[in-house]
Design goal:
Blueprint: E1 6-12, E2 19-23, E3 31-36, E4 39-46, E5 49-57, E6 64-68, E7 76-80, E8 85-91, E9 94-100, E10 109-115, E11 124-129, E12 134-139, E13 151-157, E14 161-170, E15 173-183, E16 186-195, E17 198-205, E18 212-218, E19 227-232, E20 237-242, E21 246-251, E22 261-267, E23 270-276, E24 281-286, E25 296-299, E26 304-309, E27 315-319, E28 323-329, E29 334-339, H1 346-352, H2 357-364, E30 377-382
Antiparallel strand pairs: 1-28, 2-3, 3-4, 4-5, 6-7, 7-8, 8-9, 10-11, 11-12, 12-13, 14-15, 15-16, 16-17, 18-19, 19-20, 20-21, 22-23, 23-24, 24-25, 26-27, 27-28, 29-30
Length: 385
């Protein structure tokens, strides 16, 4: 991204990896939640800054974070820990403890997703329990009262240790639960749907071509319903069409050493898939995703740990070293980042991506344009038509 084309707000919330989420917790403009260690901070937008509304001290480390479930209350903050899921909601203008689950010793709730998986008209919590080798589904109590236990709807074992979970909405059908798992060094994705007999397994992807590091669902392919995207430790994102089978329909360019975070939602005025890397790069793909190359890129200069999108179209970034950023896009020139491969030349890159050799040289400040090397990162400008 050309320097100065994005507005950005930043705050240090701790020194460890930051999980982020956004929702209508107190305001309807997209409050921001940041969780790190045993602390959760809630911020509300105020012009071009974010004001700290509340700090929550959690008795144990937060392993996963979600924001939502606004059936009886404004959106709740939901945290997965070693043995419980805890929620907080606004009561009388103050964020207070709300629902919780009974303890499940050593379950390790490492990933959370929300969805109406049983068709009762209310959202359930789906939690990947790494230590239990299963996912848990919790539903809300019938009465919207604080300090009540969430009710366990189901526990379902998966083939290995679950690491990520997401809920995939389907046209005219109940959603699918997708669980990414690791077993003896191999990675897979298994899906489940709710029936009268409980959760039954559906389409499966086995022996993924890389270690899975991030996963998200959304309207990624342009067909009715949602599909799946997963990022790997090879620096690529795979878009997977969801039907009677799971089929990979697109693999992105090499975007870095690994994919550390994915998010789907509205950025400014369009639906996008957002990809983050440990090198501090963020790549933006318009939805539906039809090209392996990103349309736009941002360098945030912090290793990306987590991503979220707000109701007012802003991008939230949690870093691996305790910082929280909120970015809002503006117009202007755009580019994507490209990792040079053996045999690449600037002339060939300009021809391949329908851009200008002179612009590539200018935007990268190259003084010796005939000397580029495999592994170099170049900004490839997207020329307006």
């Amino acid at each position: 991204m050309v320097k100065g084309k994005n507005l950005q707000w930043e705050s240090r919330v701790n020194r460890g990896p930051v999980l982020v989420g956004s929702g209508r917790i107190i305001s309807d403009r997209g409050d921001v939640v940041a969780a790190t260690g045993r602390r959760i901070a809630v911020f509300a937008p105020e012009n071009n800054i974010y004001r700290l509304l509340s700090t929550i001290d959690v008795p144990v480390e937060v392993l996963s974070l979600a924001v939502g479930m606004g059936n009886f209350t404004p959106d709740q903050i939901i945290a997965g820990t070693l043995d419980q899921i805890l929620t907080w909601a606004v009561r009388g203008g103050t964020i207070v403890p709300f629902w919780r689950t009974p303890p499940e010793p050593e379950a390790r709730f490492v990933s959370l997703a929300l969805g109406d998986v049983n068709g009762d008209g209310r959202l359930e919590i789906v939690a990947a329990a790494e230590g239990a080798g299963a996912f848990y589904v919790y539903e809300q109590p019938g009465r919207p009262e604080a300090e009540m236990n969430l009710q366990l709807l189901s526990i379902r074992l998966v083939p290995g240790a679950p690491q990520k979970v997401t809920v995939i909405e389907r046209a005219g059908m109940l959603p699918l639960i997708a669980v990414a798992f690791q077993e003896e060094g191999n990675w897979g994705i298994v899906t489940f749907s709710y029936t009268e007999r409980g959760f039954v397994s559906g389409p499966l992807l086995e022996r993924l071509p890389g270690g899975l590091t991030a996963m998200v669902s959304g309207r990624l392919t342009g067909v009715p319903g949602e599909d799946l995207a997963w990022g790997g430790d090879d620096g690529r994102v795979r878009v997977v069409a969801v039907g009677e089978t799971l089929s990979t329909v697109l693999t992105t360019d090499d975007l870095g050493s690994a994919i550390s975070a994915l998010a789907v939602g509205r950025l400014v005025d369009r639906e996008v898939l957002v990809v983050g890397t440990p090198e501090g790069h963020i790549f933006i793909y318009p939805v539906p995703v039809v090209s392996p190359s990103p349309e736009r890129a941002i360098t945030v200069e912090v290793p990306v740990n987590d991503l979220a999108l707000t109701a007012n179209g802003r991008l939230v970034v949690g870093s691996r070293e305790g910082r929280l950023l909120v970015i809002w896009m503006s117009g202007g020139s755009s580019f994507f980042l490209y990792r040079v491969r053996p045999g690449d030349t600037l002339w060939e890159l300009a021809r391949r991506y329908d851009t200008s050799l002179e612009e590539i040289i200018r935007i990268n400040g190259l003084t010796s344009p005939d000397r580029i090397y495999p592994g170099d990162i170049l900004q490839i400008p997207l020329l307006k038509t």
